[in-house]
């Protein structure tokens, strides 16, 4: 499995993050899983700052089952 850089993972996550923003405006954290083809799976986490912006805070490789 190809390993991607943090920058690649963050850029990909940022490009699709809008689809995962919680409907509840009070939520302060979000996370979601995605795949960079052909088979690199990641879980990313975001936290909302005081201004209401979502900031990338972490990622992990999702090995699956």
In short, what is this structure?
The protein is built from one helix and three strands; from the N terminus they run H-E-E-E. With 65 residues, the protein is an alpha+beta fold.
Tell me, what's the shape?
elongated
Summarize the amount of helix as a percent range.
10-25%
Q: How many extended strands?
A: 3
Name the structural class.
alpha+beta
Q: Largest beta sheet, briefly?
A: 3 strands, antiparallel
Tally of helical runs: 1
Q: Give the SSE order as H and E letters.
A: HEEE
| C-alpha-based Rg, rounded | 12 Å
Strand arrangement, major sheet: 1-2-3
Domain count: 1
**Beta-strand percent range:** 35-45%
Low-confidence stretches: none
Query: pLDDT average, as an integer?
Result: 94
Give the N-to-C terminal Cα separation.
15 Å
Describe the structure.
- By secondary structure, the protein is of the alpha+beta class.
- It has one domain (6-20, 29-61).
- 17% of the residues lie in helices and 38% in strands.
- A three-stranded antiparallel beta sheet has the order 1-2-3, with helices on one face.
- It is elongated and about 35 Å long.
- The relative contact order is 0.23.
- The model has no long low-confidence stretch (mean pLDDT 94).
């Amino acid at each position: 499995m190809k390993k991607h850089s943090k920058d690649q993972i963050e850029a990909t996550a940022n490009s699709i993050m809008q689809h995962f923003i919680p409907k509840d405006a009070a939520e302060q954290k979000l996370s979601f899983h995605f795949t960079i083809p052909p088979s690199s799976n990641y879980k990313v986490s975001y936290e909302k700052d005081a201004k209401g912006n979502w900031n990338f805070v972490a990622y992990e490789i999702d090995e699956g089952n």
